[in-house]
Write a structure and sequence with these properties.
The longest helix has 11 residues. The chain is an alpha+beta fold. Strands 2-3-1-4 form a 4-stranded antiparallel sheet, with helices on both faces. The protein is built from 7 helices and 4 strands, in the order βααβααβααβα. The protein is globular. The structure holds adenosine-5'-diphosphate and magnesium ion. The site of adenosine-5'-diphosphate has 9 residues, from loops.
Length: 139
C-alpha cells in the first residue's frame, strides 16, 4: 500500500555534506520525495515537533541539536514508506544500526544520528502536517 512518511536530514548530516547520499538512498529504495525544503528550526519549532519526548532526560539536548543549524525535511511516498524508511535508517543508536543503513554510515552517536523518520501512520500524519501544507506536496 502506498503511504507517506516524514523524514528529516538532521543538522549533523547537513554539516557533513551527506544530503545527496541520503536522498539517493531514499530514491534507490523506492521512496519518492514528494515534498522537500531546507529549514533552520527555532527552539520552539523543535519543541512542538518532539513534544512526545518532553519528559525524556535528553529533551533539552535534542532540541538544542535540532535547532543548531539547517535541516532538510521531506515527505517520502512509496509502498510501506513508514516501515521501509525505518529500515533504511537503522537503529536509533548508530553503533547498533545494521550495516548498510543510513545511521551506520552517517550517525555519530545515539543523539547525532543523521536522520529522523515517522514511526507510525498517526505520527506520519502529524509530522507531515507540521511542516507541509497540502499544496506543497506533489504526488
Ligand atoms: P528515533 O529517532 O529512532 O525514532 P526516538 O524517537 O527514541 O528515536 O528519539 C528521538 C531522537 O532523540 C533520536 O533520533 C536521537 O536524536 C535523540 N535521542 C534518543 N535517545 C537518546 C538518548 N538516550 N540520548 C540522547 N539523545 C537521544
Ligand atoms: Mg522517534
Amino acid at each position: 500500500m502506498s503511504e507517506r512518511t516524514l523524514a528529516i536530514i538532521k543538522p549533523d548530516a547537513v554539516k557533513k555534506n551527506a544530503v545527496g547520499d541520503i536522498i539517493n538512498r531514499y530514491e534507490q529504495a523506492g521512496l519518492k520525495p514528494v515534498a522537500i525544503k531546507m529549514i533552520h528550526m527555532s527552539q520552539s519549532v523543535v519543541e512542538g515537533f518532539y513534544a512526545v519526548h518532553k519528559a525524556r532526560p535528553f529533551f533539552g539536548s535534542l532540541c538544542a541539536f535540532m535547532s543548531s543549524g539547517p535541516a532538510v525535511v521531506l515527505v517520502l511516498q512509496g509502498d510501506n514508506a513508514i516501515k521501509k524508511n525505518r529500515e533504511l535508517m537503522g537503529a536509533t543508536d548508530p553503533a547498533k544500526a545494521d550495516a548498510g543503513s543510513i545511521r551506520k554510515a552517517h550517525g555519530a552517536n545515539i543523539e547525532f544520528n543523521a536522520v529522523h523518520g515517522s514511526d507510525s501512520p498517526e505520527t506520519a500524519q502529524f509530522e507531515i502536517g507540521y511542516f507541509f501544507p497540502g499544496m506543497e506536496i506533489f504526488s
